[in-house]
Amino acid sequence: MPSETSTLERWHFSAAILLPVVLALGVTAAATFGFVLWSTAGIDQRALERQANMIHEVMDARQDQLIHELGSVAIWDDSVINTRLMFNFNWVNTNLGAWPQEFFGHDQTVVLDGTNLPLYLMRDGISQDVEAGAGPSGPVQLLVDRLRALPHTPATPGTSHKPLALADYAVVDGIPSLIAAMTLVSDTGAIVQSPGTEPLIAAVQYLDDAAAAELAREYLFEQGRFSLSRTDDPDRAVYPIFSSAGRFIAFFEWNRDRPGLMLLRQTGPVLAAAFIMAAVLVFLLLRKLRHSSAALEAERREAEYQAAHDLLTGLPNRTSFDAELARALADQPRKAAGLALLMLDVDRFKQVNDTLGHQAGDELIRAVGQRIRSIVGPGVTIARLGGDEFVMLIVERDHGMTTALASRIIEAIGQPFDLNRFKAHVGASIGIVHAGAGNAEAQELMRKADIALYEAKAGGRNRAVVYEEHMNELLQLQHTIEAELREALQRDDQLSVVFQPLVDQQTRKVIGAECLARWHHPKYGQISPARFIPVAENTGLIEALGEFVLRRACELGATAPGRTIAVNISPTQLRNPRFSSQVFDILSQTGMRPVDLELEITESILLDNEHLSGQNLRAFRSAGIHIALDDFGTGYSSLSYLKLYPVDRIKIDRSFVSQLADGHVSVAITQAIVSLAHAMDLAVTAEGVETDGQATILGQLGCNTLQGFLFSGGVPADQITTMFADKANAFEPESPEVVSA
Ligand code: C2E
Ligand code: MG
Ligand code: MG
């Protein structure tokens, strides 16, 4: 297959299959990747929201927890006693300062009396000298003031007194912190204080790295820390902390929890590998598909080629020729050039096939195809219709060009063919039809070319005949000829018999006549026996026709004793077992002498093994009837057959006679035939003598009798009777009287 085609095929394949598959793969990959990204981003976002909620809750809980821690020392009789009733530094330092610092990690603790005077102050584990003016830092003081402003719950003796408490976020000494304050109350209700006079305790817990580490540990905020500036690291989450008054205190930031990203990191490579595997698989499948579809395509092409071509010659076959013809005819009106159809039949192909074998026949057909191609060139469509029939479609400038081309083809095919082991001589008959106005239907053109071919064959083969309308009529007639002939046999106004004189070569006197059937059809005029005799033979009408002719011949023969009256006999008649008795009946009915009757048979009867033909022939010969072998030279021309069925005369066919000229090879052949015939004691008649030259040569060769238009064609009975009666009637070579048949 040419590489151009396969490139085109590959392109087609890429466009039709590869591109959509790659596109689909790409779109699927993009959609999957996009979806995974979208859903992991969603997961991450939800995780962030969850953590932000959690830190919010945690920061709120931190305030409650600090109040709760303060509660563990503030709601206690001992605290009230050691601060309000009698200030005990050591006790306060141990229980309200050191212990919460150690146990809860409070960074500052301050104890104030009912009038908000500082009683005790501890910072980072060290008690400060309140006497020297150390007091709570501003934000703590503010919280204390807010606490003092809260409405009091009236104290009830004997019950525990509910403390007041507040917590908030604030920046204490420049450090973001959680602060809380709580009034000191009795846990037993033993000490009753009037509302607003309770001492109180406040605590500060720095939001420092230690607090952040604790948060991180407890609530899994990875790398959590407090800072004053917002980080721009996208992997870190940030939660801003505000005081209850809405003042910014600090940011809490931590490494974002990203389960989506983690999922993506874990599943991504697997997904990608799966996708690559799928892509490779699809690619392999596609490759296989491409190979198998290429194989299928090649098979389809091969099948298409075989369906459109003749396998023996490689030429297009009938189907593709029909299509080509239809196309050319459809295009024709747009083109200036005309179209012609040439139908060719190889003459004598059957003989080559029968004698040299089918292989030689095949070789011959191939060679004929090549020879036609070499003559017509590459532009002409040639097809083999089957058997030995070819057809050509010619684009012609004028009719003359096509006729000349046909002659060249005939000449080329007339040259000997060198087959593998043999040499074959064949010829070609060609029927031509020109497409034109009213002649542009494909089937009709083929039929007409066929008719013209039939005419070419009927006209003697090895020739080209251009279709004419009357040929069609004749062919039509062929179909109806049987019915017409049957009718003609019933009537007496259409069929007749003419007599063609037989002339003695030496004396040129009429020594007899050959009876020839004639049919004058009221519509088609004269119809040649060459047309209706085969039909009569095939349909059995030959019996009636033969009897008609024989009766006329015998009627004449009875009037001219001593003259030979020749009658043509068909093989079908001769095979009839009653034929001889029929002939004898007619002879006796008409009164003709058997010795004056000559029956003309053809060589095919000699090949006929049928016993009946032989019996009839022997019966005739023993009765004195003569037998002549007609058309000698056109069939097998085997003299050895003559021994089997002895005949009295041979009639050399007019195709030999017409070629007779000084120095021509047919002279030698005719000479040989005459010599052999004479050697076997057979008389020789030459038919179809048309010229003096032929008559002279035939005379020199020793031919006994001559017949032909040079002397006369077939004439009616009365005319031949006149010729017989005329004693001096002799055809002089100088003044031939030619009568048309
Ligand atoms: P055939 O028996 O060979 O008859 C001779 C044919 O050659 C006749 O054609 C005759 O008209 C023609 N002919 C005679 N002289 C010349 C000549 O100088 N030049 C040319 N070109 N032709 C000449 P026709 O009458 O057309 O008969 C054709 C064939 O039909 C006969 O060939 C014969 O085989 C057959 N035929 C004719 N009549 C009968 C018949 O009654 N019965 C049978 N079975 N066959 C017949
Ligand atoms: Mg004859
Ligand atoms: Mg003949």
- The CATH architecture of the largest domain comes to Alpha-Beta Barrel
Instruction: Give the strand tally.
Output: 25
Count of spatially separate domains: 3
Bound molecules: ligand C2E, magnesium ion
The global form is rod-shaped
The largest β sheet comes out as:
8 strands, mixed, barrel
CATH topology title of the largest domain: TIM Barrel
Alpha-carbon distance between the two ends: 64 Å
Overall average pLDDT: 88
* Percent helix: 40-55%
Q: What would CATH call the class of the largest domain?
A: Alpha Beta
Q: What is the radius of gyration computed over CA atoms, rounded to a whole number of angstroms?
A: 66 Å
Quick synopsis:
With 741 residues, the chain is an alpha/beta fold.
Question: What does this protein look like?
Answer:
The chain is α/β, with parallel strands linked by helices. The chain has 3 domains: 132 residues, Beta-Lactamase; 159 residues, 2-Layer Sandwich (Alpha-Beta Plaits), CATH 3.30.70.270; 234 residues, EAL domain (TIM Barrel, Alpha-Beta Barrel). The chain has 23 helices and 25 strands. The strands form 5 sheets. Strands 17-18-20-21-22-23-24-25 form an 8-stranded mixed β-barrel, surrounded by 4 helices. Helix 8 packs antiparallel against helix 9 and helix 14 runs parallel beside helix 16. One magnesium ion binds next to loops.
